[in-house]
Design brief:
246 residues, 7 helices, 5-stranded antiparallel sheet, 31% helix, alpha+beta, single chain, 10 strands, binds calcium ion
Length: 246
Amino acid sequence: MSVILRAAAASNLGLARETNEDAVHVGERLVAVADGVGGLPAGELASDIAVRSLAALDTAAPGGGGPLGALRDAVAAASARIRETVEANPAVEGMSTTLTAMLVADDELAIVHIGDSRGYLWRSGKLTLLTRDDTYVQGLVDQGVISLEQARVHPHRSLVTQVLQGKEASPAYTLQKPHDGDRYLLCSDGLTDAVPDEVIARTLRDESDRHECAERLVQLALDAGGPDNVTVVVADVVVADVTVPT
Ligand code: CA
């Protein structure tokens, strides 16, 4: 059995930004969203390095470590590349990026996550958040200090507590067993800050065409007055029986 992704992406500047610091990759094995962290220099460069460092996984044969091992190696390489870029050009010191990516190999799907770009699974009529935001407000929610609803409008909701910046970091890694017909969503916070989960769920259900679905989600963020860069990947799982050549 072999799993591939059929994925589509859409991205927009948003209503209050002059540059798009989000970066995105869609392929049959790898999908990724990275959000260069605003307010720091060269966020655009950091997100681009992160996504390009992972892109080779799309065509590389899975190694002995499976998709999780391959992702770990690629993320370490991305972090090293960010560090080398800063060392070569101190003007970009402090550049950083979120990263949420999914890699399929054989019948497994591995996820890496750091920052506040999210990964969701739409399966059997139910939307499940697969990632935990590395944010100050998520910490408050975890401690029971504020509710999820309060977190959505908290003045410090965009404060991220972990990013890729070429230094010590602890991305979260998880492994999933994808099912035929699953639909995965990756997105930058430009979507989730502007559009409630129930609207996202309805759109994933109603827009069967993945390209239309990605465009529609971005449009919903803009319609809601979304100020931030918004980037969306909609990835449909296709499980194929493959005959291994002898
Ligand atoms: Ca953002």
